[in-house]
Amino acid sequence: MVEILLDLLLALALILTAAAALLSQDLFRAIVVFIAFGLLMAVCWVRLQAPDIALAEAAIGAGLTGVLLLDAVSHFRRGRGTDSVVEEERG
Amino acid sequence: MSTPLLYALTGAVLWGIGLMGLIGLRHLLRKLLALNLIGSATFLILVGLAQHHNGPDPVPQALVLTGIVVSIAATALGVVLIRRYFHLTGRTELESEVPEAGRDEEGHSG
Amino acid sequence: MRSPAARIGMLLLALMLTALLGRSVWQLSMLEPASDLPRQLQDKLAASGVEHPVTAVLLNFRSYDTLLEIAVLVIAAMAGISMARTRSLEDPELRTSDTLLRALLRWLVPLMLLLAGYLLWAGADRPGGAFQAGAMLAATGVLMRLTGLPLDFLRPGILLRIGLVLGFALFLLVGLASAIAGDVFLAYPREFVKGLILSIETLLTLSIGMILLALFVAAPVNDASEPEEGEK
């Protein structure tokens, strides 16, 4: 009984974090929520008795993807102020 | 309903959310997020459906394991391409999707 | 440019597709599977040379898939590196002078490398293996890069290229060797199976780590001018 409840909660949390990651106004926030989604996915894999995938998901889905995307966001933020510079360089 | 089936159905819902995001969102990084979501959903469906009757099944698990690594590589390549695009054009949205003035659902900050 | 109406139509279409997918999943779950795959796997596990079923599937029973997957990774890495216009893939901007962070790294990096090694070794009989270990290596590299530790081996040169293809090359070599010896492609000779799997996995770990790291490092496009822009 408790396990079914846990599964239902986990499924609900997955859907909510997924929706929140896509709907969030702030891109930084969206990616942080997406990292949370990756961690929840790792828990899901444990529930599905797939510890191998859980390990990979925790390292990749939550860790590497998050760092990669956050790095890109900070790049865009930094680039924003120099948009005109980029334009000038091209011209 | 068994646990794997529950996750497979959750995967179907996530797939839908991801697809809508992929179509509806404009910022390229957000599209990439949506694409990742679709990938995760597909993995859930794959493993969930396979394990519904048989219990833990290493074959789809191994497939998903390689799938996860491929998907991070694809994401990383996508980020590289988006950055390149941003560097060349100064935009983070596709050319055909630059919002018109006055149309402002879901602000695209970031 | 898409109108709001077209947008809503697309979203509706996506909704319908999702409903269809959900229904298909439900219907498929009603079907009895034609074969009992986990059982077959369990029966043949002793012949695979490793005790952990997932590793057995990855590197023995379905090694063809894994081989192609590595090929995809190598191609992705090549594409990523070719996008980077930097001579050195280090970012001087990232150099940190935070002593606390450096001191922490001194502890963390060896620990993470140790963990990667453990994961690789554990793959033989419990959850773990080349992919997780490779991801761990890549994570270590990313951490080192973000704190500005020098990563000399990532200069786009011969070392980087060899590192990228090492895993794929050995895998392919083993496959070809078995084919030339008269067996099926990628059939390991029975007496060496464990050693072969372990060595392939070790090199795969290295390659996966380097591929992911190279893709991560390739991302920052520096503001160097584009001499060949007009030619494209």
UniProtKB/TrEMBL annotation, chain A:
Major localisation: membrane
Keywords, in A-Z order = Cell membrane, Membrane, Transmembrane, Transmembrane helix
Membrane topology recorded in Swiss-Prot or TrEMBL? Multi-pass membrane protein
Per the UniProt entry, the signal peptide is none
Q: Where is it located? A: Cell membrane
Transmembrane among keywords:
yes
Q: Where are the transmembrane segments?
A: 30-48, 55-76
Question: Does the keyword Transcription regulation feature in the UniProt annotation?
Answer: no
MrpA C-terminal/MbhD domain residues are: 13-78
Task: Output this protein's name.
Answer: DUF4040 domain-containing protein
Q: Which organism is it from?
A: Marinobacterium alkalitolerans
From TrEMBL, chain B:
Subcellular localization(s) per the UniProt record: Cell membrane
Ranges that cross the membrane: 6-25, 32-50, 62-82
Q: What PANTHER family is this protein classified in?
A: ANTIPORTER SUBUNIT MNHC2-RELATED (PTHR34583:SF2)
Which top-rank group of organisms is this from? Bacteria
Family that this chain belongs to:
Belongs to the CPA3 antiporters (TC 2.A.63) subunit C family.
Cross-referenced Pfam families, in alphabetical order? Oxidored_q2 (PF00420)
Please state what the protein is called.
Answer: NADH-quinone oxidoreductase subunit K
Keyword Membrane in the entry? The reply is yes
Q: Where is the signal peptide?
A: none
| UniProt membrane topology term | Multi-pass membrane protein
Q: Give the classification, highest ranks.
A: Bacteria, Pseudomonadati, Pseudomonadota, Gammaproteobacteria, Oceanospirillales
- Kindly state which keywords UniProt assigns to this record, in alphabetical order: Cell membrane, Membrane, Transmembrane, Transmembrane helix
- State the organism named in the record: Marinobacterium alkalitolerans
